[in-house]
Amino acid sequence: MTQAEIKLCSLLLCEHFGEIVEKIGTHLIRTGSQPLRMIAHDTGMSLDQVRKALCVLVQHNLVTYQLQKRGLVEYEAQCSRVLRILRYPRYIYTAKTLYSDTGELIVEELLLNGKMTMSTVVKKVADRLTETMEDGKTMDYSEVSSTFVRLADTHFIQRCPSAPESPEPPEAPLPPAPTLVLNEQEMYTVPRLNLVGKGKRRHSDNDDDGEPKAKRQKPNTDSEEPPPDDGIYWQVNIERFHQHFRDQVIVSAVANRMDQTSSEIVRTMLRMSEVTTSSNAPYTQPLSSNEIFRSLPAGYNISKQILDQYLALLADDPLEFVGKSGESGGGMYVINLHKALASLATATLESIVQERFGSRCARIFRLLLRKKHLEQKQIEDFAMIPAKEAKEMMYKMLSCNVVNLQEIPKTPDHAPSRTFYLYAVNVLSSARMLLHRCYKSVANLIERRLHETKENRRLLEKSQRVEAILASMQATGAEEAQLQEIEEMITAPERQQLESLKHNVNKIDASENQVDETIFLLESYTNSTVKH
């Protein structure tokens, strides 16, 4: 755990959950697993505050607990899960792209609340969608339920582990912490619920029948029954979203290298094996040429012969994204996910070397990637760069840990005159170094955004007050002159300052998302090498 990662985790926790939760979370990240009383003692906070903070962190899967042999419950922070908070906007946007506004709000509610039951999610989302609709229109619960089922079928959401129903007698003492069990067969099984109803508007005091809300709700409070899915909680399956992002990156890379038809064939192969292939598998499931042909989108009217030619081209490509694994069914093909991630990570490193050190350094970097180990003289000759310039470039990259220098002595005394000095590129260590820099960059961007908003806090508060007054006056049917008078409360220089602030914050947000895309690619590559 590097200092850059700890700092970024601390900033994310503070921004989303407040100072108390941030203090507890950062303390656990720094110290490792600890029991409740030790956390309270080390942080100097009351037991009640620590309990509440841990409740929030456990609810959002940011902290896990374990029962030790002595009967103590120890809490441990999941740093990698905290860093995923940075990717929340991307998960929500992906859900919107795939499952429209309903899918977007379902994923957003689950991310905001950590864990929720299906009935609660459906009602909340239906209410939120109804508020955005025109007067007289409402969102039916059944429509939201069907989108929820589709998200579960494609594994974008999953059930949370639950405490098993104990067959022990009720008088038996309860354990200090429940042991949560996850039935893998039921992980994506949606409970059969008969949710009948429509979304309600928050501001409507009277219903269609004219009966006030308070009167209508009072009788139900006494005889309130638990919902049929009580105890079955759902959460966002982050690994499945990562799998989708990885597939999108591979498809985009194939489209850039070859053409649109090749990328569509690869997309079809990934789509066919997305649910059957685990997120850390090195290959997809083998697919026959006939199966791929039958699964191609309706708009692609290509013959079986042309498809076979495309598959042969993809299999012969030096990058080896697609491999041939057999001859049955017209030829069996797989996508080599680990090799694809390695190629994409290498391409990212190449582009960064070109941006930071220039095109000549990028030429040397590519040369080392291809030839593996080279001496200084060989680099000068192969890259066709003068000796003095080549030395400067090599030492510059060496000082930034982009390239490595390996000594191979001819004799045991390591005399420089009898030693080979070979330059090489270790892609994995370079990727880890770059990942560390990315974490620092995101932390700096967040700090800059917080600084910008803090500097202009008074102006932002004034702007919000004016907008609230305008909204209330428009609702009561105020005249145009009155509205104009309220708008003039913000002067022209202040308006200009607000525009500048908005532009800067949007730019910082976009930069955060762009850096996170690089983080995702490099993390996927480093994880694939560990698991491989």
Helix and strand layout, with pairings?
Blueprint: H1 3-17, H2 19-31, E1 34-35, H3 36-43, H4 47-59, E2 63-67, E3 73-77, H5 79-83, H6 88-113, E4 116-117, H7 118-132, H8 141-153, E5 157-159, H9 213-222, E6 233-236, H10 238-257, H11 260-272, E7 287-288, H12 289-295, H13 304-316, E8 322-326, E9 332-335, H14 337-357, H15 359-371, H16 376-383, H17 387-399, E10 404-409, E11 419-424, H18 427-455, H19 457-475, H20 480-487, H21 492-531
Antiparallel strand pairs: 1-3, 2-3, 4-6, 5-6, 7-9, 8-9, 10-11
Radius of gyration, CA atoms, in whole angstroms? 29 Å
Based on DSSP secondary structure assignment, what is the total number of beta strands?
A: 11
Oligomeric state of this protein = single chain
Q: Which class best fits the helix and strand makeup?
A: mainly alpha
Q: Give the overall silhouette.
A: globular
Low-confidence stretches: 204-223
Helix content: 55-70%
**Sheet having the most strands:** 3 strands, antiparallel
Mean pLDDT: 81
DSSP strand (E) fraction?
5-15%
The number of helical elements comes to 21
Strand order of the largest sheet: 1-3-2
Distance between the termini: 21 Å
In short:
With 532 residues, the chain is mostly helical. It contains 21 helices and 11 strands.
Molecular structure report:
- The protein is mainly alpha-helical.
- The protein is 61% helix and 8% strand.
- The protein has helices at residues 3-17, 19-31, 36-43, 47-59, 79-83, 88-113, 118-132, 141-153, 213-222, 238-257, 260-272, 289-295, 304-316, 337-357, 359-371, 376-383, 387-399, 427-455, 457-475, 480-487, 492-531; strands at 34-35, 63-67, 73-77, 116-117, 157-159, 233-236, 287-288, 322-326, 332-335, 404-409, 419-424.
- Strands 1-3-2 form a three-stranded antiparallel sheet.
- The longest helix has 40 residues, at 492-531.
- It is globular, with a radius of gyration of 29 Å.
- 23% of the residues are buried.
